[in-house]
Amino acid sequence: MVNRALIDVSQCEFDFSGYDVTLIISINVSAMPTSLFARLALPPPSAGAVIKLARLLSRPVQLIPFTVQAAVMTRLVQQVCQEAIDDGDLDFLQGRCLQVHIDDLKLQWSFGFAQRHISLIRYQAADVTISGNLQEFLLLASRREDPDTLFFQRRLMIEGDTDLAHGVKNMLDAIELEQLPFLIRQGLEHITARL
């Protein structure tokens, strides 16, 4: 027995001219569950469990070939930052290298920006580096902490070119949680509920 409709098909339009049939389905977002994890009745994990799982997974992530990491990370970051790219807000990164270090997991990625496209790059000296532990990056991504708080409390560190660092901090501050893909956003909200 289904007690909640996820798709509202009450607004359908059919066109039978020739053999073509057009079906327009409107998705009723208000009927969707507020959280995928709430619907599955999964309680938020403890902060310790999140960190332990991340440490366990960090080694396999390090073993993933660079081309696979680049494809996934580039697509995700490009999607999250697309509005800022379209508005020209990331032009200050043109030809520069931003490195991200997740210290407790011993992971790092370097991002470049050229021709309005973000890419994961190898072997380039960083112009600016952001580093911190996984918990701080999760809090930042989920917007449970703002970048200023994390940087001023030195829970996240930013080093390198001062102007570039300031621009990166402002960029992080401007990113909205809604810009993340739905499943990632839901996962972040669920995971960080107890951080």
Short description:
The chain has about 200 residues and is α+β, with helices and mostly antiparallel strands. Helix content is about 40%, strand content about 15%. It has a single domain (about 45-195), classed as Nonspecific Lipid-transfer Protein, Chain A.
Structural commentary:
The protein has one domain (44-194): Nonspecific Lipid-transfer Protein, Chain A. The chain is an alpha+beta fold and 195 residues long. The protein has a 5-stranded mixed sheet with strand order 3-2-1-4-5. It contains 7 helices and 5 strands.
List the helices and strands and how they pair.
Layout: H1 36-39, H2 47-63, H3 66-86, E1 97-102, E2 107-114, E3 117-121, E4 128-132, H4 134-142, H5 147-152, E5 156-160, H6 162-174, H7 182-191
Biggest beta sheet summary? 5 strands, mixed
Number of strands: 5
Residue stretches low in confidence (pLDDT < 50, at least 5 long) are 1-17, 19-33
Query: Widest sheet: strand order?
Result: 3-2-1-4-5
What's the end-to-end separation, in Å? Answer: 36 Å
Integer count of domains:
1
Under CATH, the homologous superfamily reads SCP2 sterol-binding domain
Order of helices and strands: HHHEEEEHHEHH
Q: Overall mean pLDDT score? A: 76
Helix content: 40-55%
- Rg measurement, Å: 20 Å
CATH topology: Nonspecific Lipid-transfer Protein, Chain A
Q: Per CATH, which architecture?
A: 2-Layer Sandwich
Structural class: alpha+beta
Highest CATH level, the class:
Alpha Beta
What amount of the residues lies in strands?
5-15%
- Number of helical runs? 7
Note the overall shape.
globular
